[in-house]
Amino acid sequence: MLFWGLEVSDKLTYYFFPEFSFSQYIKAAVLIGFLFFQIAVKDYKFILIALVMCIVFSIGQIFLETTFSRNALLTFFKFLFPILLLAFINNRIQNYELTSGFFKTFEWVMVVNSILLLIGVLLSIKLFNTYQGNRFGYNGMFAAVSNGSYGYIITMFYFLLRYKERVIKNWKFILIFISCIFIGTKAVYLSMGFAIAYIVVVSKIPFKRTLLVAAILTGLLLAYYFFFQYGMFNSIRQSDGLLSALLSYRDQLFLERTLPFIQESWSWVNYLFGGVIDYDMRSQMDIVDVFFFWGIFGGAFYLFAFLRLFIPRKIDSTGWVFLSFFAFIVLLAGNFFVYSFVAIFLVVLKLIFHEKSLETSE
Fold first, then answer.
1. How many Å from the N-terminal Cα to the C-terminal Cα in the chain?
2. Please, are residues 2 and 10 in contact by the beta-carbon 8 Å criterion?
3. pLDDT of residue 69
């Protein structure tokens, strides 16, 4: 609830008091509190991970002309936060009452936000817009586009994994799914297609294969229409190519900002350990950006540590399908590892995977 309150305050202050923001200081205090707690309980696994991250970050910074910039230091702690939060949750994951209460709170937060989102659509309230400018989209009280996208994607996954075929009778899921139509991001629309396919597969309905093929063909026809016939993405494709339309110019960000910085500022050491002065030079393709910040060795270590903390030891084939699709989304999208509110949603996904793994073992 604290982080949801901070997200709402960020949205409100951006619109009404753009020069004023206090949420970053509260987030910093929370991170420091978690950090000291993990040290106090002698979580040696986390301490080792954090120590290696500090060493890698420091080596990468030493070999830059401008070392330890404020932007680089802030980004380091942003990368540290999901590792810290997952380590904290892993030590308390067996607490059923805590998990049950967390799930209930999470569901109602998303229901309330979805209601606000739909009110924004009906009344054209700019406060609830996903984007600034003329691009269509509403995300309720989410301050950042990425927070809204990942939030609704993970929410759909949560309902699908927890309720399976019963999800089509769950009014909360139906409300949230309808809200997704108006968010305006490709990642959410892809996830909606994935959700429909999953529901068709797990539901006890006749003609499953026919319906699944029809759903896939419908998705392909819609993609063809919006990328080759009508709208903003068609315009981008015509002027800058299909890849730029699919990636929302992220390929050009990489070629025009990220790659020139690497070529001009990195030594061979930085290729191993990374090193940035301004993380805004990133491509916003998150897997690429992990290696941009951490280098080849550091990026591989960070992803390994993250996955070890995030993925349960026992996970069934359905879980792997969801994880694989989610990894595909993260590969194309940005800000997955560095937005603190996304880390909160990751806890939801972590806990639901853990719940499913316990059911599988039984």
1. 32
2. no
3. 94
Give the mean pLDDT of 72-92.
90
| Residues 28 and 246: beta-carbon distance below 8 Å | no
The lowest-confidence range among 30-34, 164-168, 254-258 is 30-34
Q: pTM of the full predicted structure?
A: 0.90
Q: pLDDT for 290-303, tens place per residue?
A: 999 999 999 999 99
Q: Which residue has the tokens 């600034």?
A: 132
Q: Residue 6 — very low, low, confident or very high, per pLDDT cuts 50/70/90?
A: low
Burial of residue 171 (number of CB atoms within 10 Å: 0-12, 13-18, 19+): exposed
In angstroms, the CA 322 to CA 332 distance is 16
